[in-house]
Amino acid sequence: MTKKTLSAISLVLVLVLSSYGFAKLGDIVFDDKAESLKKAGMSPAVFPHGKHEDIYRCVDCHPKIFKDKRGANDINMQKNMSGEFCGNEACHNSPKAFPLYQCAKCHIDKKVK
Amino acid sequence: MKSCYGVKFTIRVISLVVMVVFIGYTGLKTTSAAEPVSPAKEKDKSPVVVPTAAQPEEKPSTSSILDPKDPKSIIYLNTKGELAGTGDPNKSGSPSEAYRIGSGWHPAALAGAGLPKDKYGLVNWAKIVKDNLLTPRHSLDPSDAEDMPPLDMNILIETKSDFVNNVIYPHYIHTWWLKCEICHPKIFIPQKGANRMFMTEIAQGQWCGRCHGKVSFPLTDCTRCHVSPKKAAATPEKK
Fold first, then answer.
1. How many CB atoms lie within 10 A of CB B195?
2. B212, B152 in Cβ contact below 8 A?
3. pLDDT tens-digit series, residues A19-45
4. Minimal CA–CA distance to B199: which of B186, B213, B185?
5. I need a surface site. Which of A61, B97, B126, B159 has the fewest CB within 10 A?
6. Residues from chain B contacting residue A76 (CB–CB below 8 Å)
7. pLDDT, tens digit, for every residue of B52-110?
């Protein structure tokens, strides 16, 4: 192998890796129901998208469970409890993931009173 | 160095043999007192002495185990005639098979009982009461006074959120098993609106979480309590 091919391979590798880095989304804050959340004394749920990317493929959630568009999913706790969105039968309504009643795991920085 | 070590070794062996012979002559009672000294020294270098010393040691101990008046020396057999245990449960465990089965993990022991289960595979005790599958006695002592009849009173607990269903708390199923004093007034103040509960607190083991998730059905079963729909939940628009 020549030096040129080596450098080309490394360049491709760097590009691929960096693109993976860019693809990872950060945390998504669900704050569209701020009024109701305030009444309930809860802080908005924070969804760590990157953490889920490590475990699942995009198609596992999109577009079946969550439409992949900002503001397109009207999520609330009642829907989660009845098996939609986060509370899907394969997700946080199953023994695979932590249960929905562990409020503070998503509603971080909670204000209890 | 080596010759010096050898001399020391032979002196030690000879002294040990002399000691053991002497102990053997001076009767059994004194040996038990002298025992703790000799085995420690024997372990040093002379395995020859062990059998002679072990013999006088065993005699008193065997006689104490086989004392027929001691309840610990009882041997229990099961229906097949096999050894089930002894009168000393610390050594052999309980001889009762029923006890051993009962001390297992509760849901596992109940798995084959054919009782109705919830979606988590746990026994649905509420359904058992509602379907009259079980009629437990009010007390093991028949001379005890009859229980108070269950209190049929539903309490609507409104959720603070606009979306989550309200909770309907049924006194009936709770008072089927529990006395008023178990919950009132320590856990819940018996007054409307006096208990400001939060789901976060319940998850941490307060309020309903004192029992639910521990001995009663788990908090994971959200929709079993959150049953009464809110108006806001039906219409997506906020107020």
1. 13
2. no
3. 555 567 888 999 889 899 998 888 999
4. B213
5. B97
6. 161, 163-164, 233
7. 444 444 454 555 556 778 888 888 888 888 888 888 878 878 888 777 766 766 656 66
Residues from chain B contacting residue A105 (CB–CB below 8 Å): none
Reported ipTM: 0.74
Distance CA B151, CA B3 (A): 94
| Distance set, CA B153 to CA B169, B174, B225, B226 (Å) | 8, 10, 15, 17
A88 neighbors A18 (Cβ within 8 angstroms):
no
Task: Please check whether residue B120 is in contact with residue B109, taking contact to mean a CB–CB distance below 8 angstroms.
Answer: no
| Residue B170 one-letter amino acid | P
Query: Could you tell me where the DSSP H helices lie in chain B?
Result: 2-25, 28-34, 37-45, 50-65, 89-92, 97-102, 106-110, 125-130, 171-175, 180-183, 199-203, 231-234
